[in-house]
Amino acid sequence: MLEGLAAKIQATMKKLRGKGKLSEGDVKEALREVRLALLEADVNYKVVKDFTARVQERAVGQEVMQSLTPGQQVIKIVHEELTSLMGGAASKLEPALRPPTVVMLVGLQGSGKTTTCAKLARYLRREGRRPLLVAADVYRPAAIKQLQVLGEELELPVFSMGDKKDPVDIARGAREHAFSHGNDYVLLDTAGRLHVDEELMTELVRIKESLEPQ
Ligand SMILES: Nc1nc2c(ncn2[C@@H]2O[C@H](COP(=O)(O)OP(=O)(O)O)[C@@H](O)[C@H]2O)c(=O)[nH]1
Ligand SMILES: [Mg+2]
Q1: What domains, with CATH codes, occur in the chain?
Q2: Region 36-52 average pLDDT
Q3: Is the pLDDT of residue 88 over 60?
Q4: 111 CA to middle of ligand 1, Å?
Q5: Residue 110 beta carbon below 6 angstroms from any ligand 1 atom
Q6: Number of the ligand 1 atom closest to the C-alpha atom of 111
Q7: Per the count of CB atoms within 10 A, which of 36, 157, 175, 210 is most buried?
């Protein structure tokens, strides 16, 4: 998804670069394309709206439009605002000193943990890693199956001990499995929960204490 986004934005910026003089309409048209590209890439509507408003405000100012290289200036502004949109500084997944690196996906129900787990695994494989997906959501009926289907699609291993075991034991078992199978990343797909759900929150703490994920 992000690759498509980069290509689209680059194409739009290329059009601007070629122009000697920019009208407000040129900027608007370019921003419209950037906005569509962001929306297609699933960026939240409000985030996109704020982003385009900020670029617009900075880009149609006198200083930019009357400069010798307005196209370049607008590209610079878009670049700066995109960077700040993505969170400014890039943060990396810190590997554990001793593999496997354990990553625990936590969050509310339906917030995208299982999907992110699969995306992360695919990313790690592309980086030459050997991730193990772990079905640690034992509460929602189809949760394990969902991860298994994703694992099959991506041809990545999924560790499961069914839905009758304590997630802490599953997590421990997964790490053992990773040790013996040479998986350097263990991605724990946990059950969704609210912070007010004491039992489930305690479970996360127990997994954390037991495995010390990154
Ligand atoms: N549009 C969109 N949908 C997503 C994204 N990530 C997950 N979903 C969908 O949101 C729903 C819940 O995702 P899931 O990974 O099962 O959430 P979980 O309950 O936290 O594990 C599913 O229907 C996913 O297909 C995303 O980045 N964009
Ligand atoms: Mg899930």
Answers
A1: 2-85 (1.20.120.140), 101-211 (3.40.50.300)
A2: 89
A3: yes
A4: 6
A5: yes
A6: 20
A7: 175
Residue 34's nearest CA partner among 54, 11, 17 is: 11
Atom of ligand 1 nearest to the CA of 108: 20
**Encoded tokens for 38:** 């962001």
Centre of ligand 1 to C-alpha 115, Å, is 6
Nearest ligand to the CA of 144 is 2
Say yes or no: CB of residue 128 within 6 Å of ligand 1.
Answer: no
Residue that has been written with the tokens 């499995």 in this structure: 177
Structure tokens at 21: 């003089």
Is the shortest distance between the CB of 42 and ligand 1 below 6 Å?
Answer: yes
Q: pLDDT, tens digit, for every residue of 124-176?
A: 999 999 999 999 999 888 999 999 999 999 999 999 999 999 999 999 999 99
Q: Is 95 in the pocket of ligand 1 (CB under 6 A)?
A: no
